[in-house]
Protein 1
Amino acid sequence: MKVAIAGAGNVGMYIASDLKEDGHEVLLLEENPDLVALLQPTLDVEWVVADACEVSSLHEAGVAGADVMVAATGDDEDNLVISLLAKQEFAVPRVIARVNHPKNQWLFNETWGVDVSVSTPHLLTALVEEAVSVGSLVRLLQFEGGEARLVEVTLADDTPAAGTPLADLAIPRDATVVAVVRDRHVVVPRGDTVLKAGDEVLALVTPDSEEAVRAILIGR
């Protein structure tokens, strides 16, 4: 897989290093030539000195051949422009954008070409809630501009789902249980998987199906 990353700051460098280590082809774009000269010897990926907010620069860098575009600069306006250009001008299949200021989260949607946005403050909040909340539905990640969400709930003792196979829970068609964590082990869910109190259930839902899933796993 070819991944183009805009921004060679700490975030961009870390992502590039991880993806390179996993065997992916990485294209790293950075507009500061001095920073490129400093960092290039430390990371064996394809480096390009370019302003990722310029169509011509993205074209010359070969972004059109990327499978994924990651807008990882420290500026939200730049990340939005990069995402929009990657999606509309180069038809990059998957665009992931970093949200630096949490109040800008609402802008990072499909209108700006963003498939997945990552806001560190929101993610940390979700992880804190996930760690301390039993019987509460916690949103971990959003995809497709919020039209798909990864949610988590640790089932309480009074969960209505206890003792019932997944196939009999009447989960909506546009939602699915993707994993169950039980006693620190991941259980791959099947129709005959029976949930019980204490299970950590992860599900993909849509805005329309979220409340139904909440009612099934938590109750009203």
Protein 2
Amino acid sequence: MTNRNSKQHNEIGMIGLGVMGRNFLLNVADHGFLVAGYDKDVSKVEALRRESKERNIQGAENIHEFIELLRKPRAIIMLVPAGAPVDSVIKDLLPHLDKGDLIIDAGNSYFKDTDLRADNLAVKGIHFLGVGVSGGEEGARHGPSIMPGGSKEAYERVRPIFEATAAKVNNLPCVTYLGPGSAGHFVKMVHNGIEYAMMQLLSETYDLMKRGLGLNDDQLHDVYNKWNNGELNSYLMEITGKIFSKVDEKTNKRLIDEILDVARQKGTGMWTSQSAMELQVPIPTIDLAVAMRDMSVYKNQRESAGKVLQWPMLIFKDNQNTFLNQLRHALYTGMIITYAQGMALLTVASDKYNYNLDLEAVARIWRGGCIIRAGLLEDIQNAFHTRNDLPNLLLDPDLSKKIIENQEHLRYIVCRGAELGVPVPALMSSLSYLDAYRSSWLPANLIQAQRDYFGAHTYERIDSKGTFHTEWEKK
């Protein structure tokens, strides 16, 4: 760390020097910006100092010292856990700030909290940005996807820093101003919901290959590596292949086989489902991914149920290569449908919350740095470039053609999963979403009739406008 005068004012400060905060601050410094970091945990400040070396970074051990290190008007990034910790940091900051200062929440905050904080701070003359950051530790250090929302004027103050530190694809930074208020955090929330679904889809292919085909870890490694070289190319596919070759230092066995089959959640997937229900946008593949994480937690009950609700594992008689080819196509179809659900939610939310989202730009900044980056996002970007008011990706001519070409493989895999007794709910829900979305008629007329029968909730007719009620028991 450079030995600069402590009163030299830095361009931006970071509160929260955990893995993400420290690495992002190092990233900013690597691009020539003067930065300062602060954390209540002094050991994290010391860790920053050790890693800083000759970079333009200063560490502070108390908030007063930290504030003194920042150039006015101040710009401060928070990278702390969502919820109460964010409000606690803001409370600590306020006595030290002046009108015109800027606070940036770069954590995974719930978008409604972001709107509330922005409104409360605006009254005090403090600017606020809600910024989604995706890419994990590696992304924070070397280039994440950054999703900013809030005041456009405030964003312009930090735009050079974000554009310099973001991941680059074709020399374009994976960051853009998304819209007012909580637009950035909403987009990040949906990103995470898509991430949940992609991980669930991949885990279902793993289950089918492990319990259905009996493939070992080396074979699974080879399959995912091969898939990553084709249309399924993505960050999640890449790391999945690597996972199966990792050896556990403790047991000298494959690490994947030593990991408990329980996957908890931190909330962003659940928030995505809740928001979709509030906006009445169906996203069943994402919903199922959240539900299956919840199901995994019931480990003891699942073990007991397996003894009571027995189902014989059938002998797999299909040609292995044929099955793997169909599984690849099924996964590809599920991925398209998952993106379609997420983008449909963004479309409706953009209108409801006046975000005015540019979904072509969203797809563009997701192509690099973030967890759900995938080759498929090039097609998605092109779809919204061709038609910026596209209500659903399944209506895009090119993507719909891919769905038509691959849907038979998804149907086959879903059937085989059901026959084998291997749960594939995300693949199933993707297929059901496809079939429901393409159905010009759905049996919702029966639901209308049932509601009117037991609750006099009325119904609509095909041949007349308005609402109607029938005395169903009347002769």
